[in-house]
Design brief:
This protein is mainly alpha-helical and 105 residues long. The chain has a domain of 73 residues. The chain is built from 4 helices and no strands. α1 packs antiparallel against α2. It is elongated. It starts with a helix and ends with a helix.
Length: 105
């Protein structure tokens, strides 16, 4: 794989973005409203949304960290299921993927 530095830069950049997004989500989730019933209902809805966003961001962050580890181990771009090379276009679209298109479907 001849573009390892570019891949690492892209993954590290996305990791930074996700870390910042998680920080903002956590700040918003901690925000408290007055205790009126209407505001309590809004806060409960917001908490559900923030929890879902937080879960999604943490999942992608973990996948990116795993991809960086695969780069370090020299196995990035190989399908973890079948061992075949993952198509470059798939890696371009999902640089943190660990499965080829056949194994992912």
């Amino acid at each position: 794989m001849d573009n390892v530095d570019q891949i690492r830069t892209r993954l590290e950049g996305r990791k930074s973005q996700l870390t910042e997004l998680l920080s903002r989500v956590e700040r918003h989730a901690r925000r408290r409203f007055d205790k009126s019933l209407e505001e309590q209902a809004i806060q409960r809805e917001n908490e559900e949304v923030f929890t879902h966003i937080d879960d999604s961001l943490n999942l992608e962050l973990a996948q990116i960290e795993e991809a960086i580890l695969r780069l370090d181990r020299g196995i990035y771009g190989k399908c973890e299921n079948c061992g075949e090379a993952i198509a470059p276009k798939r890696l371009e679209a999902l640089p943190h993927t660990h499965l080829c298109i056949n194994c992912a479907s």
